[in-house]
Design a protein that fits this description.
This protein has nine helices and no strands. With 212 residues, the chain is mainly α. The protein has a domain of 76 residues. The protein is globular.
């Protein structure tokens, strides 16, 4: 069901990007914000139609948490992670070409419509599998890649491994902060990543004309 929800969302964003902006990154972000508000309203609706126990569980899940027990989840997520990493490594050169622009990618013989749809579906599958266990942990995919690009450059062949490593380290650090920042309780890690990601996103908007 998480994958179905991801496909519905990404399909909406894809249609907006294809018909209105030729996949302008800024328009895609705005379409994502609209989709986020709509589905947030759906979640609020679920709060009201459920009892207090289920509502509390929903709220905890939507905040994002790493408190997943046992190795059953591990054996599901690791194969997904490995396969998706292999795909990224194989497609790194094509991703570099697509990052320059659609016209340039087409001139190099890439079927960008096919590749973009393929990437949307695979990313949706990978992310939906993970968040079905942890809940949505926001802004890690925004903060870390921008920092890695500043250090290692824009070449996907060079920054894939640093991005993976620093994303994991950043998430562990945020989880550590979540466990010690309030002495009487353990906060969900998604609270910390959102507190850091909000100002970082605002910083990108203010300091960059094109922030993606």
């Amino acid at each position: 069901m998480a994958f179905v929800g991801a496909l519905v969302t990404i399909g909406f964003i894809y249609l907006i990007g294809k018909t209105k902006s030729n996949f302008n990154p800024n328009i895609l972000i705005l379409a994502g914000v609209v989709a986020s508000f709509f589905f947030s309203s759906c979640i609020v609706f679920l709060h009201f139609i459920n009892d207090s126990f289920n509502t509390k569980k929903i709220i905890q899940w939507t905040l994002g948490d790493l408190a997943v027990f046992g190795f059953d989840v591990f054996w599901i997520i690791i194969p997904v992670f490995i396969l998706f990493t292999i795909y990224l490594l194989r497609m790194s050169l094509s991703l570099n070409v697509m990052a320059i622009g659609d016209n340039f990618a087409i001139s190099r013989g890439l079927d960008i419509q096919k590749l973009r749809m393929e990437q949307f579906i695979l990313v949706s599958l990978c992310v939906s599998i993970i968040i079905s266990f942890t809940g949505p942990i926001s802004f890690v995919g925004l903060i870390v890649p921008h920092i890695v690009k500043k250090i290692w450059g824009m070449d996907f062949r060079e920054n894939i491994w640093p991005t993976l490593a620093f994303s994991g380290a950043f998430l562990v650090l945020c989880d550590l902060i979540a466990q010690v920042i309030v002495p009487t309780m353990i906060l969900p890690v998604g609270v910390i990543t959102s507190l850091l990601g909000g100002p970082f996103f605002l910083f990108l908007i203010i300091t960059k004309k094109n922030f993606v």
